[in-house]
Amino acid sequence: MDNLHIEILRRLVSFNTVTPAGIDIMLYCKELLESWGFTVKIHQSENVPNLVAYIGNGVKTLCIAGHLDVVEPGNNWQYEPFTLIEMDGKLYGRGTNDMKGSLSSMLASIHDFIQQSSGLSIMILLTGDEEIMTNNGMHSLMNYVTHFHKSFDLCILPESCSPGEAGEYIKIGCKGSMNIDISSHAPQGHVANIPNNHLHRFIDTVHKLIGLHIDDGNDVFEPSKLQLTSIDVDNNTRNIVPSNIFAQFNVRFNNVRTSEQIKLMFEKLVPSGINSNIEVLSEPFIGCSVEWQAKLRCIVGNSLNKNVAVGTFGGNSDAKTLHKYMNVVEIGTPLAQAHITDEFILKSDIDKLRSLYYDLISGIASQNWS
Ligand SMILES: [Zn+2]
Question: How far is the CA of 92 from the centre of ligand 1 (A)?
Fold first, then answer.
């Protein structure tokens, strides 16, 4: 195996692309892909640059999508975050795991694949704001792309998404997310003269919400779960009962019940006198047909010589937008290494993903798509 994927990663990491990514990294990708024969357009939406590249004249188009922005490195890095550093079998740098490393492997395997003729066209979609997900990233890019390309079938997103080893998981969808806020307000008083302490009642409600069993999950989704993320009473004084109490929760939920049904379950637990506000941020989805799930599971299983799991582990990505247009799956690096201080990808993983993605593209090209 040559070092093309490592050299691409070295360049990608050298751009500080704390979200949103700047134009420089897009121009580098444009130049690289044009030198391989791709037709490339940069689509700028407000302050976010995105890129679409296309090659081939086959009737079947495989989309490959990814993001070039990264999260803030923070201050505690042992290594320089925007320089690729190789040490003891690991490649360090912000974005090496999420997702410049797997994207470099994918780009190198596309480079290898297009050396031969095939009936497969390839469209590459790169975005600059996945980590904050405004409407200027994938949403805007797909609006732009659909002006000149109408039919979409399948998209592979080489994201950081595996609950275990790199490449050994096919993510086919994602849980939904909702925020719950509850609050209670009463006149502040002396602890010696409070007949009904509203803080006690509030804590009782928090317990009921935490204790609610929402569902048991199903074949592809884990059980829905609520997490308490903050309680604030704004009080440092021992002999008063505070006036304002506030708590917030986030719920990651599956498709066993609708978001409306889950909202009602929570609302029933909140007594009068305590205010509640529930906001649904995203609905759960399965983004891939069972036929493509089976085909991809077979191709990946043959390439790695082991059975791979299919599921909906982890958080949201650009799949949230892409699944509205085509089948989409995520196959990539371990999620446990995303967004960490001294982020890295194993050298063995970046090599493994390059071979896997090559087999994946070749396997997809040889499928009957009807
Ligand atoms: Zn990512």
Answer: 16
